[in-house]
Specification:
The complex is a heterotrimer of chains A (283), B (266) and C (408). By secondary structure, chain A is an all-alpha fold. Chain A is built from 13 helices and no strands. In chain A, helix 1 packs antiparallel against helix 12, helix 9 runs antiparallel to helix 12 and helix 11 packs antiparallel against helix 12. The longest helix of chain A has 36 residues. The two termini of chain A are 16 Å apart. Chain B has 266 residues and is an all-alpha fold. Chain B has one domain: MetI-like fold, CATH 1.10.3720. The radius of gyration of chain B is 22 Å and the shape is globular. Chain B starts with a helix and ends in a 14-residue tail after the last helix. Chain C has 408 residues and is an alpha/beta fold. Chain C folds into 2 domains: 198 residues, Periplasmic binding protein-like II (D-Maltodextrin-Binding Protein, domain 2, 3-Layer(aba) Sandwich); 157 residues, Periplasmic binding protein-like II (D-Maltodextrin-Binding Protein, domain 2). Helices cover 44% and strands 13% of the residues of chain C. Chain C contains 18 helices and 11 strands. In chain C, the strands form 3 sheets. In chain C, strands 1, 2, 3, 6, 10 and 11 form a 6-stranded mixed β-sheet that branches. Chain C has a 3-stranded antiparallel β-sheet with strand order 8-7-9. In chain C, helix 2 crosses helix 14, helix 9 packs across helix 11 and helix 9 crosses helix 18. The longest helix of chain C has 19 residues. In chain C, 51% of the residues are buried. Classes of the chains: A mainly alpha (283), B mainly alpha (266), C alpha/beta (408). The interface between A and B is large, with 91 and 86 residues.
Amino acid sequence: MKLFKNKTFLLFLPAGAFLIIPFYGFLYAVIQSLGGEGFTHYHEILNSERFLSSVWFSIRTAGIATILSIILGLGFTKWFYPLLTHTSHRVMVWIPMLFPHFVWGYMIILLLSETGWMAQAFTAAGWLEDRSNFPVWTRDPQGIGIIITYVWKEVPLVILLLFPVYASIRPEYYALVDSLGGNAWHRFTTVDLPNLLPVLVESFLIIFSFTLAAYEVPALIGTTFPEMISVLGYEWFYGSSWDDRPLAFAAMVLTSLFLLILTLVGYFILSRPRWRAMRGNRP
Amino acid sequence: MIRKKAWFLILTLLLFVIPLTALLLQSLSAPWRFHTGQGLDWGWQGYAILFENPQLWEATFISIGIGFAVLFMNVTIGLFTGKALVSYAYRGKAWLEALLLSPILIPSLAIAMGLHLFMIRIGLADTIWGVMLIHLVPTVPYSIKIFHNSYQQMGKAMMEQPHILGAGFWTQVFTVELPLLRPAIRSLTFLTIVISLSQYALTAIIGGGRVLTLPLVFFPFLDNANTSIMAAFSIWFALIPLSMYIIIEVLMMFLPYSRLPWRNHR
Amino acid sequence: MKKFMPFFLLAILFMTACSDTSTNNKDWTEASWEEIEAEAEGTEVRLYMWGGDEGINAYIDDYVTPQVEDEYGISLKRVPLDTPEILQKLQTEKQANKQEGSIDVIWINGENFKNAKENELLMGSFTEVLPNFNDYYNTEDPAFQRDFGTEVEGMEAPWGKVQFVFHYDSEKFENPPATFQELQTWVAENPGKFTYPSAEEFTGNAFLRHVLYAQAEQPADIYEQPLEENNITPTAERTWSYLNEMENNLWRSGEHYPNSLTELDRLYSQGEVWMTMGYNESRAESLIEEGVFPASTRSFVMEPGSIGNTHFLSIPFNSPNQPGALAAINFMLSPEAQLEKYKPDDWGENTPISFDQLPEDIKEEFKAVERGESVLSTEELQESFLPESEAAYVDWMKEKWFNEVVQK
């Protein structure tokens, strides 16, 4: 086995070499956030009401967007995966992925703002008396616009991540459940879920960390207050005086640590023996 | 099945195709001001301004080149690491997986300055190589995930069998694993190229303006109130991953055991 | 984890290692202009500037680039990049002691200039070697001496001049407000038809500084004073109450302020609001032509006046081609280049050049330019001109506005 172990180590080499790059960057950010003054900057932001309210708003908004994306993406893949084996179908579903996030956000504004096409179409159809009666869905204080943009954009990503797993589940397993008298729910919990769970947890982590920390969409479609943490960090970073930069680094380091801990927790849960056993012979 | 297909088509049309159509229409007409009562004012103005930009073609080709290079490195790193992760069943695996995912958990604004410093130190700042390397940061974790999952689905038996039969490492990769990894490579192509194409800040800082990619030309136009230009740019943007996806799809036909269109279907 | 140790060690090695230390030793500001021109011949100059306006881009690509090629044999490369990003790049390069950069000329002013100067990201004083600056500009003009209150000290050369104006649709209403007091009345009478971008945004911040000027005893109390919070407390109080009184009648009852000028422009374009604004007196022209703004768009300024500023060209500390940069800047300051920039076809921006120092024929040509119907007359603009305050006010406004207006 020793030989095999060494070989595994060799396979990790490229990834290890690659990891130097982001870690160097992160180390630098940590140093900048300390700024040679210990934890004063951390102390400052943790006492800043503006920061704390943005943390809550960000976690709430990103959380809702992520969970919705995963539920919808899972439903879509589960229901339609045989159809997705056609390249043309897949490409249709992946259309939103062709565009960068801000373009999609921009399209949401074109579609759903008070002057958008929906409002205009509804008014023309006589369903709305006046454009101004259209609900405020973009740049709203509840973050609805941000959530819509992310869900619309991330559902295809969830489909993309889940599709290979579904494609590789052998139909024999379903037949087995059926022959043992199981129903659709049993099929989902005993065959799909053990296979999907790692991907679902990882999708959650990927999408959640992205929506929590990305700047473009909230900057475009968010409102003045409450603001996402990324917007605040950006303002501290590129603000007119550079004195606030350590604050920006401190905010981003805290965000990163939070996400890293969340990820670790996620993987520890996944590595629990129960789930490994349910995935059968594949450790 | 037919009903399912109908539903699928309705949903995708409504959610995915119509927005695209709207964007197309906007790119082909003057900015919409319907409240004045005027209809669509057709024209190529959006595209005309797009193609007037002398940097457009250069930026497009450089972006495509970088996209392919990034994809290649991603497949290499992702394949090795994904394979290693499946064979690795010791303690600390949770740590290892979290570590491998971490580059996309850290906000890129936080690490951009450090990355720039790094690239200056190793002499790759302001070069296309530096940009390719830096685009690995937001993409490689995805590739590792995707390959890891695919290897897991493939099952250990599938990987031990060729080994027992005496296949070398590379033979095994090319004749057994790669053909089975085709869905993963498809997803990866799409994902890495789209991500690589939307990196503005990292490309701007590391490439320093010497490496001109499409977002560098495109992003400043976000400050523009002319929606036609925006729409035309977005369409141009979307065509790139699409065409690259098709190229990869064609290339994958040459993997062993692929169904070729000019052969009889099973 | 142990297996990764070597890589971390390697990383730390990189962190401590030093990069190249080559320097461009020659001080070109000591050289004669002929020498600089000779050295610039046949080189490449990289101009980094914000690239979000196709009119400005076209002016550089279609006019300046071929002209400098003809005149100096310089091949000019325009690189679209936002100024804060340019400065960040320079700062990191400074930190890494990278003496051979990639940027030769940058477009800069205000707080960016302040940051660049304070962090020593610029080459130094160079304007006195430029023949065109000495010949055709009033070098003593206070607008060239101080940039948002920061001493210029010859570290940037004036390239253009803009003034803040408001735009309205003359088909929607006829008499735009003439003072900030009247604006408040107008907003009360037309609820939901006015808003301004948030203080984080360049234009929104400038609007708020106008309000501050208007609430002071006289505008000079602000722009001639360095920021002392205690001294302006009464003025600040009046400013917040002015804004808070207005808030309920703003677009969406002031619950949301546009994140960018683009957003406000789109609202105006859609007829949602009836006014927009901008820090460039002629910017409506191209937007009208493209069909974004209605053709009936006109501009106006209000008492006590409208803030104007100058924007500049400068050279970074590690420019690899200083002679080329000097020659290119010299060309961009020339009367011909300024005249072309003044014409509304591409950019249509005002010039900082001194008309008194120009030869008669060029002066006539400047006078003959029709700037367009949406642009106010030069006299009107000059009469209402107010200088910028110190850059510190910009930051102060961002923070206070958020606390006093948004969160209230």
